[in-house]
Amino acid sequence: MRPFSWETLSSKTILDVSPWFSVIEDSISLPSGRVVNDYYRIQAPDYVLISARRDDGCFLMERCYKHCLGQIILTSPAGGVEDGESPLQAAQRELLEETGYEADRWRSMGSFRVDGTRGICNAHLFFADNLRLVAQPLSNDMEESELLFMTLNDISSAISNKQIPLLPDIAIFSMVTSNLFSVFPQVDAQ
């Protein structure tokens, strides 16, 4: 059976906690004619995730507490895309703000929808190469982090023992270490 599109009959925002996220309630008509009056989806700003490598082949990671997980984890530098900012500009800004590093070469690893059922946002993945320290990280009043450099073997072990539990981090390292890497073009860092 071939799937068909749904029709949105109405939408209303039932929770708006900007700039973090909004919850929208849709009334939809299915191809069968059935009407669903309480289909919920989430809208949140897009974000960037950066796999950043030093010239010795080690990757920059952040050890930080994630309250929704209730644990300290390892994750890649990341952050929101601000209004009027391209994903590349956001990645460069977030890398500098969170870590104090800049990169000589950037590669877009693609933009992906976070959740096909709830919507949520797009994740823009980047690879940054030839890191150089140019400043101190900006202090963040909510999220303290420890910066560390890890080899790919260390990262694989951290994924296996769930120190890196977030799917976007696992996806970007899988892409960087696979043949998929070559299909993504280098982008101009300016």
Protein traits:
190 residues; alpha+beta; Nucleoside Triphosphate Pyrophosphohydrolase; 2 domains; eleven-stranded mixed beta sheet; 3 helices; 47% strand
Task: Describe the protein in words.
By secondary structure, the protein is α+β, with helices and mostly antiparallel strands. It has two domains: about 5-45; about 45-180, Nucleoside Triphosphate Pyrophosphohydrolase. It is about 15% helix and about 45% strand. The chain has helices at about 85-100, 150-160, 165-175; strands spanning about 5-15, 20-30, 35-45, 45-55, 60-65, 70-75, 80, 100-115, 120-135, 145-150, 185. Strands 1, 2, 3, 4, 5, 6, 7, 8, 9, 10 and 11 form an eleven-stranded mixed beta sheet that branches. Strand 8 (about 100-115) and strand 9 (about 120-135) form a beta hairpin. The longest helix has 13 residues, at about 85-100. It starts with 6 loop residues before the first strand and ends with a strand. The mean pLDDT is about 90.
Residue stretches low in confidence (pLDDT < 50, at least 5 long) are none
The assigned CATH architecture of the largest domain is: Alpha-Beta Complex
What is the CATH superfamily label of the largest domain? Nucleoside Triphosphate Pyrophosphohydrolase
First-last Cα distance: 48 Å
Q: Quick one: overall form?
A: elongated
Describe the structure concisely for a colleague.
By secondary structure, the protein is an alpha+beta fold. The chain has three helices and eleven strands, in the order βββββββαβββααβ.
